[in-house]
Specification:
By secondary structure, this protein is α/β, with parallel strands linked by helices. Strand 7 and strand 8 form a beta hairpin. The longest helix has 23 residues. The radius of gyration is 18 Å and the shape is globular.
């Protein structure tokens, strides 16, 4: 498959999985009325919302509500309604795990109502400057005002709300250059944003600082923090545990090694895409189908 065909096919494949890289026109064309936002309990006062785009972590308690990521702007009312079923308190903080629109699109709506947006420094920088994802011919214009994080950090930060410390850990050059892992320490729950796609091959935003090595390093970092009782909210896919993250990490390590060997031997991207590199992982990680596996191989190849 040529690179041009790959760009076109990958940009329309896999439905909600690829919403972060759809064009602005395609996002506007989505049937938002058909999207359902559903909540599930994770542990204690921590819940997860599934809708379109990145999974939302929710903490509810006496101090109010804070969330991790906020999906797309047209879904804000549905997100508010789902949270209202869990708590009648306001959304005080929203943490952005990275800059992509399926995780930050609700910022402006929430910020206008007083929610404080929190993220790594690079999230604000990329959102304010605008961004380009060449792999999908996708351009996001600069954002301003309430859409931007107003509290940023360069390494770690913490919120002390609802009876526990929630710490944000920056991880370098993973899914992007501004990813954060959010650890609800008292609940033993982690939100990994798009450094973890559970049950599917991940999008690695190589054009904006992402790399397969960084994603592997992030998985190893979190594996060093979790225990057998930990629960993990991925950016996409269902809530899982240490074993689920280990399977994902092991897949990435194996694929990275195979692609690196082929590339070192002179194989082109098209050669790698036709070499059956992912054949033994398709059953476990091939959700979305279409040309997405080929796109994933391009991210790995181009980040080595």
């Amino acid at each position: 498959m040529t690179i041009t065909k790959l760009k076109t096919a990958a940009a329309v494949a896999a439905g909600a999985l690829l919403l972060p890289v759809l064009s602005a026109q395609a996002v506007l064309a989505q049937d938002w009325d058909a999207v359902e936002v559903n909540s599930e309990p994770v542990r204690g006062n921590i819940h997860v919302l599934y809708g379109a785009g990145g999974n939302i972590g929710v903490s509810v308690g006496d101090d109010g509500v804070f969330i991790v990521d906020d999906q797309f702007a047209p879904l804000t009312d549905k997100i508010r309604a789902a949270i209202a079923e869990l708590s009648d308190k306001p959304i005080r903080f929203a943490i952005n795990t990275h800059y992509h629109g399926d995780h930050t699109g609700g910022n402006e709506n929430l910020g206008r109502e007083g929610t404080v947006i929190v993220a790594h420094d690079n999230v604000r920088i990329r959102m304010a400057a605008g961004s380009v994802i060449k792999a999908f011919n996708n351009t996001t214009p600069p954002q301003e005002g309430h859409a931007l994080p107003v509290v940023t950090f360069n390494d770690e930060a913490a919120l002390h709300l609802n009876g526990e410390q929630t710490r944000m850990h920056h991880v370098s050059n993973a899914h992007t250059d501004g990813d954060s892992i959010v650890h609800f320490e008292g609940s033993n729950v982690f939100h990994m944003g798009d450094t973890f796609f559970n049950g599917r091959f991940p999008f690695i935003d190589v054009d904006n600082g992402g790399s397969v090595d960084g994603v592997i390093a992030t998985a190893n970092k979190v594996l060093g923090m979790v225990d057998d009782a930990s629960l993990i909210i991925p950016g996409h896919g269902r809530v899982t545990d240490r074993e689920g993250l280990m399977r994902y990490r092991d897949m990435l390590v194996t694929v990275r090694g195979r692609v690196a060997d082929l590339k070192a031997g002179g194989s082109s991207l098209e050669d790698v895409q036709g070499a059956g590199v992912l054949d033994d992982f398709m059953e476990s990680f091939g959700a979305g189908g279409g040309d997405w596996p080929a796109a994933f191989l391009s991210f790995v190849y181009n980040s080595l």
